[in-house]
C-alpha cells in the first residue's frame, strides 16, 4: 500500500516525530511511504502552484494518510494549521475525502489529546475515514514495549484500509455563521484606574471581530492598547529548534520579542480576539502562540486577567474552548470571560460590557481562580520533565522552577512523609484500624475544621474593611 505521510514538524528530516515514521517504514518494507514536509515547506507549498499540485498528487495516489506531527502549544504547529486552512480555502478537501487517515504525534503528553481531537475533527470535515491515533512521548521509540504498540497501531491502520472498514465520523459539521453584529448602545465606560488594558486581535476589516474589538475598547474609560498581531512583524513560524531553552531568547531577529514586551508583558488585562478558521483560531494566531514558546515553561500571563473575543461557532468547538481556557489556567492567569458572536448578536454589547466590568473588578481584587485538572496536571508534567532531564538544556526553566519553589515533589515533604509512615504503622494496630474504618468521614473532615473556625476571623476582618 502507499501511505502519504503529512509531516507537520518544521524540522523536516530532523523531526523527532519523523523518526517514528522511519521506524514504521523499516518495520513495514512491503508498503511505500511518501513524506510531504508540510511543516517545513509551508511557504513554498502556499506560494508555488507547482509545489501545491505535487503535494495534492501525492495525496491523490495514496491509499491512506498518516498525519505525523509534533504537538505545539496544545495543537499542531502553525505551519500544519496553515496547510489545513489552505486545503479548506482552496477547495482541495475532495482530494483527501474518502481516504483512510490516522495520526501519530510526539510530545511530552501535555495537551496531546486536544491536538488529536483537532486532527480527528479536521479529518471528519474533509470527509476522511479517521481510524485512530498514536501519541508518543518524545523518547518512547527507545522502548521496545512501545515499539510493539506502534507496530500494532500501524497494523490496525493498514488493516482498516485493506478491509475498507466502515468508519463513523465523530464531529458534526460546523454551522455557518454570518456576520451580523451591529454595536448599538453606547457603552457606559468602566474606569480603568490606571490598569493597562491590551486587546490583541487578527480581525479582518469589516468583520464582527473588528466591531467587537472596537466596542470592547470603548467599554473601558481610559487608554486601551489595541494591536493587530500582524504588527508583531514575525518573519516566520516557530522552527522548533529549542535554541531558546538556554536563555529564553529566540533565534529569530524580528519584531516579535519587542511586540511581546510592549503589549503582553505590561498588560494587567489581556484580551485575545481571534477568528475561527476551520476549527481553531487562525494560523496567524497559532504562529503567535508557538512563537511565545521562547519563554519556555515560565508562565508569562501570571497574575493577569485574560479575556477572549471569538468570531466563530465556539459553542460547537469544545477543543478550541478547552485550549483557550486551559491556556489561561496553565499560565497562572484568570479567565475573565469569553464573548463570541454566535448565539445572539443582540446580546453581544451587554456581554462585552460585562467582560470589561468583570475584568476590572477581578484585577482590582487580584483574583486568580484556583486551578483545575489542566493546570494541576500540567504543573506535574512540566515539573517532572524539567527536573527529569530537560533542565540540562532548558536552563531558564530550571532557574525559574528553583527560584519559585516549583520542584515541589511530595518526596521532599519530610514532615508529610513521617506522618504518613506513622499513620501507616498505626493502621497495623487492629483497634486503631477498626476505629478509623468506623469513623472514616470524621477523620477526613477533622483537619479542615480548624479552617472553618478561622473563617469567622476573616469575616470580621472583611467587615472592618
Ligand atoms: C513551540 C513548541 C511548543 C510545544 N508545545 C508542546 C505542547 O503543548 N505539549 C507537549 O507535550 N509538547 C510540546 N512541545 C514539545 C514537542 O511536542 C516535542 O518536542 C516533539 O517531539 C517535537 O517533535 P518534532 O521534532 O517532530 O518537531 C512543544 C515544542 C515546541 C518547540
Walk me through the structure.
The protein has 465 residues and is of the alpha/beta class. The chain has three domains: 2-162, Rossmann fold; 190-369, 3-Layer(aba) Sandwich (Rossmann fold); 413-465. The chain is 46% helix and 16% strand. The chain contains 17 helices and 13 strands. Strands 7, 9, 10, 11, 12 and 13 form a six-stranded mixed sheet that branches. The chain has a five-stranded parallel sheet with strand order 2-1-3-4-5, sandwiched between helices. The radius of gyration is 25 Å and the shape is globular. The termini are far apart. Flavin mononucleotide binds next to helix 1 and strand 4.
Gist of the model:
The chain has 465 residues and is of the alpha/beta class. Helix content is 46%, strand content 16%.
